[in-house]
Amino acid sequence: MADHDRIEGAAKNIGGKIKEGVGKLTGDTKMQAEGKADQVEGKVQNTVGGVKDSLRDKA
Known about the structure:
Elements: H1 4-26, H2 29-58
Helix pairs in contact: 1-2
């Protein structure tokens, strides 16, 4: 079973991409930057979840 962090991280990454896209369409640079930050946060969370999965599989 996938770790909860992986699921949340993937969702945050997708949400960030959407937010960045809306920011580009509307010319809102703040929203664009927030979207990029959400993507980075989501990728980190997804990576942490992957490490947890690997550790659990080895145990």
